[in-house]
Please model this.
Amino acid sequence: MRFRHPDGSIVHLSYCTNVHPAETLDGVRAQLRDHCEPVRRRLGRDRLGIGLWLARDAARALINDPAELRALRAELDSRGLEVVTLNGFPYEGFGADEVKYRVYRPDWTEPERLAHTTDLARLLAALLPDDVTEGTISTLPLAWRTPYATDPGAARTARAALTSLAQRLDALAELTGKSIRIGLEPEPGCTVETTADAIAPLTDVGHERIGICVDTCHLATSFEDPDTALDALTAAGIPVVKSQLSAALHAEHPHLPEVRTALAAFAEPRFLHQTRTLPQALEPTRPGEIPLAAGLRGTDDLDEAVAGGALPDSTPWRAHFHVPLHAPPAPPLTSTLPVLRATLARLVGGPVPLTRHLEVETYTWQALPAELRPRTRTQLADGIAAELTLARDLLVDLGLKELP
Model:
């Protein structure tokens, strides 16, 4: 979906296909047929943007066979789909029964991450619509915090890999005329947990094609204020390459038994749901708690928090669980949709957009409590279309004009 900003530039809105995990090229084609095109039809659009997720095997198949790449581009066109952004965070196995910590490997200290991201950049340059010259790719924020924090050479290795990537992106732009940019995506528990954590390593790399991807679920989970975060990025000259529109799980009164019961329904075995709180006063560290900067207290997963004793419960909790934008959980829980709204207003509501690529990323539909999960493809398509409709309405309310 395309929108014209009041300054005349085009802002793209898509949804991320990691909600339909597939490891192979045949699986990707099935996504387009069974999910993406039906969502487009529900929205009554001739064209729909998708943030494509290409696992390692699918990406290598396309790199190794130019005919397959041309065929994928033709299929996107025939189904009324366009790609301006890729999700390069998960490497493989995102559809496994248990993902958890596996999603952070390989990280930016391992050569496989650089090779895969280079592949993705080459593929995106070939998949971009003819009238689009800029593509974006989100990637993991360097690494999970351990063992990175205790390895004296990890930061140097990651910086060298990102510098090499920037040089490759420059060469790709010269060769194809397409500018591909990469955004580190801060996430709780990672080396770069917050936007503030991203400033130093991105300043070290110091390249216009390497910036940040602001995920509004992650931003909210870490209790970051959108204005403060974006002001600091702007002051540091760090580009917001793209933004993922998502909402976290919010519990206002986690000390109440009924709130703990409601939260426990979202603790599930597939994904990691880092949980954070921001106590009003300094309290002693508890067993199972992670020491964090900026006054945050946290656990690696939601079940550790709801079990009791690991986190202070006198202030609200937020969990890294991407809940549907249009359907916050029932009381006594809610979502951080207000953080998304405030962030979006700053990103594209000003005289000049801070980013032009927006991606709805609710990959946890099938991880919701059983009674909230879509049971059919039709129900899932309806839900994704409803999320995109909400995002579209927010953009129109900010003064952007929807284009055909």
In short: The chain has 13 helices and 16 strands. The longest strand covers residues 10-16. The CA atoms of residues 124 and 395 lie 25 Å apart.
